[in-house]
Amino acid sequence: MSPNESNGEPTSIEVQDSIPVIDYSLLTSGVANERSKVVQDIGKACEDWGCFMLVNHGIPETLIQEMMDLSDEFFNMTKEEKLEFEAHGVFDPIRCTSRLNLVNQNKDMLWRECLRLIVHPDFNCPKKPLGLSELASDYVKRTRAVAMELVKGVSESLGFEASYMNHELNLDASFQLLAINYYPSILEFDASLGLVQHTDHGLLTLLYENGVSGLEVLHNGKWVGIGSVPNAFFILSADHLEIFSNGKYKGKLHRTVMKDERKRITLVNTNGPSLDTIVGPSTRLVDGENRPPRFLPMKYSEYLECQTRLVTAGKHPFDEIRIHI
Q: How far is CA 301 from the centre of its chain?
């Protein structure tokens, strides 16, 4: 069930051109009026869509392509090799889910393999295939820098100082994940649903795909197909941005639907507070009866455990922390 949208089954449409596009270079150009305009655009995108395309981000295409190539090599390893990294717990530094037919109690099929790495505050990565660890270390440092600049823009768009969210959420020690997802082609696996509808934990999710579309977001009650845009990151608002903004910016509901005869690989960065940070609505956005808090505060680590426990039951952590007004 969606935490913030209708739970009816909407139709899928393609309106890629309507999705906001943010030019990252203008956010970091040092020109005040350009930054001010981009900050406003980020705020509008977060409020109206909960997502946007990010262009001119400065991360080399060659680096991203090398990450895609080595990720493909990882998933092409034998089942026995991948079992070395089999998932056990939510805080395992390296977790590989290698089954392709996971089903929850709602009978939804999860059709993917996933390598999930904790990459901040400590960096973790398999040593094979050769070169993946060194490459991923460079990649996550660069994507983290982009994410932290975006958080500054989001902070300003909410009327705060650029450093306010960093300070309040202890982002210097933030918990950052890199999830590398592999979706087999429909020729390999006879199903269309790659990943069921969900929102992400954390503040912002950075997603990059290998040119094979499949991502859909729920917008105004309809599933919108997101086409592949060369050298662009897709940015999604996540749960803790919704909590911290007291509901102003919603965590974006999304899913993966595979209809392609090519395999799909995505690099997904989730960026959250530190594990020890207790996250609730910003005190600056709560004002007695006029703007009451919409969420109960919860430690970030407890939220992650709660999310893992509830997802198999078809529930969302907001079921436990949302304050009904």
A: 17
